[in-house]
Amino acid sequence: MELLQGIEQLGLVRLLKASFAAYPIVNALHIAAIGGLFTSVILLDLSVLGALRPPGGKAFIVLMRRIAFVAFAGAVVTGLLLFSVRASEYAFMPVFQLKLGLIALAGFNLLLFVQLERRGGSGLRLLAAASLVLWSGALLCGRFIGFV
Fold first, then answer.
1. Structure pTM?
2. Which of 3, 45, 79, 118 has the highest count of CB atoms within 10 angstroms of its CB?
3. Separation CA 52–CA 44 (nearest Å)
4. Distance between CA atoms of 118 and 26, rounded to whole angstroms?
5. Which residue, among 24, 14, 35, 140, has the nearest Cα to 85 in the 3D structure?
6. Contacts 24+ apart (CB under 8 A), 54-61
């Protein structure tokens, strides 16, 4: 608990709290990053499931993966900043913990997907469907954090 309260007292966090514009800007950047991540993940998963025929084939998939990784990095950075403002409260919210768990599962799912893809194994469609469910759940949990 002291660590979390210490995070809330960091200089950057106090500036974020005191600024009229900083928090809304960080929040907007977080939403934009999540939008980029979610869109690219959906397009990738739908193409694996056969529901979407991506223009450009493999080049499109490579581009979507790059966008997903960059957007995920942006979401992590902005998410940490948003978390830092009320760390001692958010850390104990069940919906926040569920969101982190779903993100961890989505990351593990991605690792399995990449391994199977390299080996040419079956099961990619199942992992793509799981990805859709996991990321949708994480998105939903994230939206609840501000309203619970």
1. 0.89
2. 45
3. 9
4. 37
5. 14
6. none
Q: How many residues does the chain have?
A: 148
- Tell me what pLDDT residue 125 has: 96
**Half-sphere exposure (CA, 13 Å, Cβ side) for 99?**
19
3-state secondary structure of 86: coil
pLDDT, tens only, 55-89:
888 899 899 999 999 999 999 999 999 999 999 99
Lookup result for tokens 């959906």: 42
pLDDT of residue 146: 79
Tokens of 107: 């990351």
Please report where in the chains the tokens 């979610």 appear, as a residue: 38
3 state SS of 147: coil
Where do the H-state alpha helices sit in 2-123? 2-8, 11-18, 22-49, 58-85, 87-90, 94-119
Given a contact cutoff of 8 angstroms between Cβ atoms, the answer to whether 136 and 106 are in contact is no
